Amino acid sequence: MTSLSNLSHLDWLESEAIHILREVAGQCSNPVLLFSGGKDSLCLLRLAEKAFRPGRFPFPLLHIDTGHNYDEVIQFRDYRAKELKERLIVRSVEESIKIGTVVLKTQDEPRNKYQSVTLLEAIAEFEFDCCIGGARRDEEKARAKERIMSFRDEFGQWDPKNQRPELWNLYNAKVHKGENTRAFPISNWTEMDVWQYIEREKLDLPSIYFAHKRSIVRRESAIVPVTPLTPKKGNEIIEEIFVRFRTVGDITCTAPVESMADDIKKIIIETATTTITERGATRLDDQTSDASMEQRKKEGYF
Amino acid sequence: MRDKNIQDSLLRFMTCGSVDDGKSTLIGRLLFDTKTILTDTLMQIEKTSRKRGMTAVDLSLITDGLQAEREQGITIDVAYRYFSTGTRKYIIADAPGHEQYTRNMVTAASTAHLAIILIDGRKGVLTQTRRHSFLAKLVGIPHIVVAVNKMDLIDYDERKYKAICESYKVFAKEIKLLENQTIDFIPMSALNGDMIVDRGESMTWYKGLTLLDILERTTADYAGKDKNFRFPVQFICRPHASDDHKLHDFRGFMGRVESGSISLGDEIIVLPSQYKSKVKSILLGDTQLKKAISEQSVTILLEDEIDISRGDMIIKSNDTILPSKNINAMVCWLSETPMTSSRTYLIRHTSRESKVKLDKIDFKVNIETLAHESIANLNMNDIAQVTFKLARPIMADSYENNRATGAFIIIDESSLHTVGAGMIAK
C-alpha cells in the first residue's frame, strides 16, 4: 500500500467523473450517453465501466451521425458498443433531412450545427431527461463557463446568463418534462489529461488518431484531406503526407495535423509541445466567428 | 524538498478581485508565463489588442468572455481555466467581480483549496477586500494569498507594501482569519510579470516566494479537520439478472469516500437504519483494493445482506452521527426570488434529499461591516444563519469539521433551480 493521502491528478479526475456519472444515474430517470467513437467519448465509456460494472450501464449509448464520418470511426463505434454489450442507438442527420426538419443550404456544407436538430428529435423520441457528453471546458471559451450539469430548456437552449449555481460536488439534474440536463463528467479534463488517461487505461482508438499516409491539399493555413465530400479545388496540388487527427467529426470541417506520431506515447509528446489549440488546429468551423461555439450552444448544440 | 503528496496532484484555486485590480491580467500572466497559451490564441489576442489601439499585448484578453458578455458589458458567472507545470495540475475558478458577487464567489470558493485576494497597491485594503476575506473564511478555504498588485504604479515601494500587509493583518485578526487559515503576502506586478512566475528585477527587497512557488507548495486539502470515514451511497449495483451466475448475489454500494478511509474487514454501520456489517470487498472498476482513501470513487461489498438505498451513509461502527431533522446553518441565498418561511423547498445533502422549511432566521451578516442584522426574508446574496425543519433526517457533520457532510444546496420545488447554499453550524 502506498502511504499517499492525496490522489494523483488523473486519479482525482477519474474519481470526479465516476461520481458525476453515478449522480446522473441516481438523479435522472432516463439518461443517455452520447457516443461518437471519438477519443473523449471513449474515455467516457471507460469511466462508465468503472462507475457501473459488473452491472450494465444504466443508460443506452446514442450517436448522432452526420453522415460525414470517416468509416474507421463508425466501425470502431459499432465494435466498441458490441464489445461492451451495451445498447447503441443511432439517429442520423440524413434522416432529419429526409423528413424536412433539416434543410441544407448546400449539399456538402458541414453538418455539425444540424446535429442539434437531430439530437433534439432523439431526445423527444426517447424522452431522455439527461444527455451525458464528453465536452471539456478547456476546449473553447464558451465551454469554460458551462456547468458540469447544464440545464437546457424545451428547445435545448443553453442560457449562459441563467445557469444554475453549482457548488461543492452537489449537482442538481432536476428538470421538468420536456427539459433536459447535459452532464459533462470530463469538464475539468484537458486534452493532455485525455491522452494520459488513454495511455494509462490502454484504450483502443480509431486508427485515424494515429499518424497515417493521406492525400491532402493545403488550403490557407489548414490541411484538407481529399475525400469525395472534400475534393480538391481548382489547381490545388494533392500531396501524400503523414497526418493524424486530433479530433474526429464532420469530414468537411475536421482537419488533420501533420504528424509522425503513430502511438500514444508519441502523441503525448506532441501534445505537450504543440503550439496550436485543439480546435484551432482542426476545427474549420470554429474559426469563422469569434463566438461561433457560443452561438451553436445557445441553439442546442452539445 | 517537495512534499510527495504534491507531486502530480491537482490544486484548485480562485482569484478574488475586480477587473480594476488586475485580476484578468494576473490570470493571463499565469497562463502565459507557464506556456499554456498557444500560438493561435495569442495571435487572436494580438489582433484584438491592436484593434483596441494598444501597443503591447493585453494579457487580460486571454480571459475575455462570451459574446453575450461583451455585448452587454457584464461578466457572467464563474469561468474555469486550466494549466499545469511539471509539478502539478491547476484549476482556476475565475469569479467575476461585480454583479451577483456573493453568489459567484461562494460558488467558486466551494471547490477551492486556495484563494488569491487581490489588492490594488494604490488603494490598499478596501471594503471589497474585507468582503472577499470574510467569504473565504466562511466557505473554509484553508490557504489565503494576499497579493498586493500594481506595485509598478507605486514605485515598487517596500514601505507602502508593508503598510498594506500590516493593515490587512489587523483586519484578519478581527475576523479571526488565522484560526483555520494560513496567510501569505506577496507584492507583484501582473502587468510586468513580477513575482508571478518570474521574480523580475524590480523588487529585490522581497525575499519571499513567487506566486507560482506558493501554489507549487500548497497541499491540496480543505478546511475540515475530520478524518472520520464518510461514504454517502450514490447508487446500488445489483446485476442479478445477468447471465453470469456468480453475480447473482452481487450487491455493490457505490459512492465516493468523502473523508477518512476504509479497509477490508472494517466494521461499519449504515445510517439511518443502524444496520451493522463488515467490509467484504472494495472495488475500483475490476481492481480489488485493500483500502480506499478520501476522494476515491469505489464500490463497497458487505459481508451481510442488508437493505441500503441511495442517500444512506456508511460510517465506521465505532463512530456515530445523530440523524437529524433540525439543522442550524449559514445560508447564502442565490435566487432573485427571496426565501420565505411560507414555502417548502428541497434540500440536497450528500446524495440524500428531503423536503425542507425555513423555521427561523437567526440573523443576517452584513458582509461590509460584519454586523448581525435581523431580517424577515432571505434575499439574493444574503448570508444568514437560519434554522431549517426537514421532512427526513440527514446525517450531517458541522461544515467546519467536514466540508462534504456539512454542505448542502436548496432547490426550488417549482422552478427546480438551485436557489441556496448552506453550511451546517456546530
Question: What is the topology?
Answer:
The complex is a heterodimer of chains A (302) and B (426).
Chain A: H1 9-27, E1 31-34, H2 39-52, E2 61-65, H3 71-84, E3 88-92, H4 93-99, H5 115-126, E4 130-132, E5 149-152, E6 180-183, H6 191-200, E7 212-219, E8 222-225, E9 239-244, E10 257-258, H7 264-273, H8 278-282, H9 292-298
Helix pairs in contact in A: 1-2, 6-7
Chain B: E1 10-16, H1 23-33, H2 39-51, H3 67-72, E2 79-84, E3 89-94, H4 101-109, E4 114-120, H5 127-138, E5 143-149, H6 158-174, E6 182-187, H7 211-217, E7 231-237, E8 252-256, E9 261-263, E10 267-271, E11 276-284, E12 287-289, E13 291-293, E14 297-302, E15 313-316, E16 324-333, E17 344-349, E18 352-365, E19 372-373, E20 383-394, H8 403-406, E21 407-412, E22 418-424
Parallel strand pairs in B: 1-3, 1-4, 4-5, 5-6
Antiparallel strand pairs in B: 2-3, 7-8, 7-15, 8-14, 9-13, 10-11, 10-15, 11-12, 11-14, 16-20, 16-22, 17-18, 17-21, 18-19, 18-20, 21-22
What does this structure look like?
- The complex is a heterodimer of chains A (302) and B (426).
- Chain A has 302 residues and is of the alpha/beta class.
- Chain A has 9 helices and 10 strands.
- Helices cover 32% and strands 15% of the residues of chain A.
- Chain A is globular.
- Chain B folds into 3 domains: 208 residues, 3-Layer(aba) Sandwich (Rossmann fold); 83 residues, Elongation Factor Tu (Ef-tu), domain 3 (Beta Barrel); 101 residues, Elongation Factor Tu (Ef-tu), domain 3, CATH 2.40.30.
- Chain B contains 8 helices and 22 strands.
- At the A-B interface, α1 and α2 of A face α2, β2, α4, β7 and β8 of B.
